[in-house]
Amino acid sequence: MPPGDPGRHTRPSRCGGCTLNLGPTELIIVLAIVMLLFGAAKLPKLAKSLGESAKEFKNATAAIDSVNDTHDSKS
User: Fold this and answer.
1) Does the model's pTM come out above 0.70?
2) Gyration radius from the chain CA atoms
3) Under 8 Å between Cβ of 38 and 46
4) Alpha-carbon distance 37 to 47, whole Å?
5) Domain segments of the chain: what residues?
């Protein structure tokens, strides 16, 4: 389509397929806000629980994949 075609999107969509592109400045700001909200003393506990949650999610995903693979091999 030519660039002036009204059916063509002129700017990128804000949803669907977007990635989270955070630079160093944005990460520092986010970390500062998190530290203000939770306090420095609670950050290690928060990080530990976040890590445990990620591990559980990974294990559940692997279990679902193995069930799907077993089901697919029977078909």
Assistant:
1) no
2) 21
3) yes
4) 14
5) 42-75
